[in-house]
Structures are given as structure tokens and as C-alpha cells.
Design brief:
EC number: 4.1.1.94
Low-confidence stretches: 1-36, 112-125
Subcellular location: Cytoplasm, Cytosol
Protein name: Ethylmalonyl-CoA decarboxylase
Strand order of the largest sheet: 1-2-3-4-5-7-10
Catalytic activity: (2S)-ethylmalonyl-CoA + H(+) = butanoyl-CoA + CO2; (S)-methylmalonyl-CoA + H(+) = propanoyl-CoA + CO2; (2R)-ethylmalonyl-CoA + H(+) = butanoyl-CoA + CO2
Pfam families: ECH_1
CATH architecture of the largest domain: Alpha-Beta Complex
Mean pLDDT: 82
Length: about 375
Amino acid sequence: MVAHRSAKYFIPMLHTRLTYSRPVFAISRQYTTTKTTIFREIPEDAPLRDVRENLRQLGGGSVELTMNHRTSIAYILLNNPSKKNSFSGKMMAELADIVDALEKHVCDSEGVDGTTPEGVKAVVKTKEQEDIRGVILHGASETFCAGFDLSVARSHMLSKAGGQQMSRLMHNTFTRFHNLPLVSVAAVEGYAIGGGAEATTACDFRVLHRDALVRFVHANMGIVPGWGGANRLTRLVGRRNALRLLGTTEILSAEQALEIGFADEIASEDESALASSEIFLSRFIFEDPESALPYLKQHSSGGLNSTTEDASSPPPPMHAPESLRGLKQCVIATDLEGAKGLAEERRVFVSLWGGPANLAAVSRPPSKSKHRKK
């Protein structure tokens, strides 16, 4: 899989015209203080802005947004290879920042709690910015995501307050991401474990590499999904399959995922899941996806084989963005009752987080906890 270019731009530069296929929202805030990181147990009803900033100081890694306005596809990269792209608190905050930015771009709305990331208000919206139609969530270094970084959990977040803050922010972030008026695809390479498996359910579709493995390991950790994954999984695969996957923590292969309706497509042998996801999204973007394939390959940000087509050639006819976004909003409207189920899922998660079973699981060596194979 070919990763995106990793050049990072500070947010104040967003007032300039956005260029093609380059990271435009790669959060990389540096903390130069020498003070010990302190995770504050803030009130349960504290503004999500405060929860986000409290988590931002925990751990490393990054989450990066790239917008390719030639193909109308945005890319969100989970970038923490040394931890199998596990989410740190910092990455959770950055993903929330990116969802804010996407809401601002495609909805012209403010982020959670009426705030926007620093500098986003300075963006001058252009036709190119308004034309983004799809988004791909993927991981660096040929793996998707191994869930929550357990080293961060052990160091800072095994209290009930820590679990409540994390769950509250991630529920909000993934729900807002799921409800974006964009068609979203999870491009799954390698492992999608625990919270990583939950993240795939926040997307409209899932394209898996043929060697990809998905596993909901929460029961082994003495908890239930805390980011909305149980609710969304049940809607995807039905009650019986969801209960089996969650209760037995069985490993789901790409073929099995396709068979039960979890996966929508398996990448071909000579393509990465990211490249296949671009082709998958092209069906929603271009009026004639087959004839648009050479253009898509020429301007790909995801590793599709390039062609000799003139880079200055005009794009093939595309579906109107307002039509596609309107269709997504109609589908979202059918999920309104799901909010009650998400609230109950978060309540149960918080009641179990930091409990005896969870503490025992987190204290085990990595080979004997969530990463062990059956």
C-alpha cells in the first residue's frame, strides 16, 4: 500500500488555495513543556472541547487528512506504526479535529460545542473544496488499527473518569463522522482489532485486503465496545452474527467478512485495499466509472497504477455533490432511533471500564491480552 506524502502544514496556511493530493490537515502539535503529563478527571458534563484537550496530551502518533480535489476523495490516515496504529489520546483529539474540518468543508457548519479547529474559520471555500464527495479511512504501514493504545491506558486512563471521557469523545466523533454527507469507506489492511474494528463500522462501506483480519476483542479485555461499535455492528450483520463476533472474539477473515455482510468488497490480488477503495468510491462519484478509471489512476492518492493520460485533462462527468450528499442525509435519517442504543452502549462500557476484569486484562503482557491469537 502506498502511503500519502507525510508533509505537514500548520493550520493557519488553510486560508490559501488547497493543492491536490497533499495533506492539508495533518495535526502535529508539539508540547515543549517539561512538566509531567497529568490526566485531569474533569466533570462528566464538561464541554467536549475540554475532554478533547485533556486527551490530546496523552501518547503519540498522528491522524492526517488529505484532500484530492481532482478525484473528489478525502483521505484520513491513522499514523502510529510502532503501535499498529492504535489510538492514543492525542490521535483521538486529532480525529475529532479532522471531523470538525470536514463538517466545515462540506456542511459549512461549526464543530462540536460550536467550536472549529484553529484557523479553519479563515478558509475561503472554493468550488474544489465543496466538491469532495467521498472519504477513505485507512492506516499506515499496511495495517489498519489495533484499537486503543494500552500503554496510554495503563499510564493514565484506567479510572472510571478516564473511560467516560474517552468513550464520550469517541462516540461523538464516530457518530459525527458516520453522519457526514459523504460516502465513507474503511480500507482495511492487516489487522482491525478492538477499537480498530469499531472504527470500520463508522464507515458506510468496508473494503478489505484479502489477508486482512478483523477481531472484536473487547470481551477478552473485560469490557464492551466503547466507541459505538456494538450498535453499528448489529445493524451491519444482524443480532446473531454480532453477538457471536462480540461474545466469542473470533477472528474474521476477509472472505468470512464478505459472507456475513461486514465487508462490501475484497481487494484484488494486485491492489491494496486503499487503491480498491478508490475504485469502489468512483462508482458514487463519476457518472461512468469505467470510462473514468484512467483519469482516476492518473490522479490517484492511494496507489492506483498511473497511466500516461495528460494530467491537465478535464475530469469526466461527475454526479452533483448536492445530490449525493442529499441521498446520504436521507439514509442517515433512518438511524435516528439508534441514538438511544448508542447511549446505552456507552453507559455499559463506562460501568465496566476500570473494573476488576478490565484491570486484569490490561495488566497482562501484550501477547496474552488483546493481540493473542486463538
